[in-house]
Amino acid sequence: MPDETAPKDVVELILDDHRRMEDLFRRMRSVEAQRADALREFADLLVAHALAEEHEVYPALKRFRDVDNDEVDHGKEEHDDGNKALLALLEVDDVGGDDWDEKLEKLVEAVTHHTDEEERTILNGARENVPMERREELGAAFTKDRAKHLDAACGDIDNLRRIVED
After folding, report:
1. Is the Cβ–Cβ distance between 93 and 31 less than 8 Å?
2. Cβ contact 139:45 at 8 Å
3. Which residues make Cβ contacts (< 8 Å) with residue 95, sequence separation at least 6?
């Protein structure tokens, strides 16, 4: 059994969230799943994940040479795109209808594009250039900030509207 108190590499924590998002996409696409429940879980995860990256991870990574600062800045822009696509899906009334499917695919496209790009550029740069001790410190900060947002139900539609309007 893994040691839950062991330090966690921020890169691995972010990758774990990305894989969880992919699983939730599968559930939201499945006619046999509780799609609305999966969307609520996804909304909280996406918003908490992005806010924790923006508050704790991205600013720290920009201080390291050979981590592409333009990609870090671009990551924030892609978070905005994902939030807008998520809001559009949350505003659909008929879960599983044509509008739902269309908005879900736009969300999948926005988030998948971001996670793929982030994994290839930002996270690989962090693996190569940021010492493990610092990645574990960032992992602790990311986990704490993410949990704070999850506890506040940050994926609530009204909160998401505030985020998108900012």
Report:
1. no
2. no
3. 35, 36, 39
Chain Cα centroid distance, residue 150: 12
- Tokens for 61? 């990574």
Tens-place pLDDT, residues 116-126: 999 998 899 89
Contact status, residue 147 vs residue 121, Cβ threshold 8 Å: no
If residue 46 lies in a helix (H) or strand (E), which one and from where to where?
helix 35-52
User: What digits encode the pLDDT tens for the residues 24-64?
Assistant: 999 999 988 899 999 999 999 999 999 999 999 999 888 87
Q: Which pTM does this prediction carry?
A: 0.92
CA 4 to chain centre: 22
Q: Going by C-beta distance under 8 Å and a sequence separation of 6 or more, which residues neighbour residue 24?
A: 38, 39, 41, 42, 45
